[in-house]
């Protein structure tokens, strides 16, 4: 898992488990989305690259709160991090 449920709650500023049924499927979908978008495969046996962890949090925020005022800024940030992660992946598997 690229980010843990506790990390997701903290990043979304959620103190309780009331939204877990929404958060968990989003967390589970993020690694595939990152892989399709960048080619980076999130490792199962070790921590993901810090850029992948950060982009995962921003994706989660965008998907969880689709009506946020910052959605366009989040999309630009995600796109920039995708570019960086693509280059990281290419340099590691080059």
UniProtKB/TrEMBL annotation:
Domain of life: Bacteria
Name under which the protein is recorded: Head-tail connector protein
Source taxonomy: Bacteria, Bacillati, Bacillota, Bacilli, Bacillales
């Amino acid at each position: 898992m690229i980010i843990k449920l506790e990390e997701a709650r903290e990043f979304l500023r959620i103190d309780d488990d009331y939204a877990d049924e929404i958060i968990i499927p989003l967390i589970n979908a993020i690694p595939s989305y990152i892989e399709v978008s960048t080619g980076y495969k999130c490792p199962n046996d070790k921590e993901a690259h810090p850029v992948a962890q950060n982009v995962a949090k921003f994706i989660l925020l965008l998907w969880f709160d689709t009506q946020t005022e910052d959605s366009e800024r989040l999309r630009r940030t995600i796109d920039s991090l995708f570019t960086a992660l693509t280059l990281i992946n290419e340099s590691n598997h080059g």
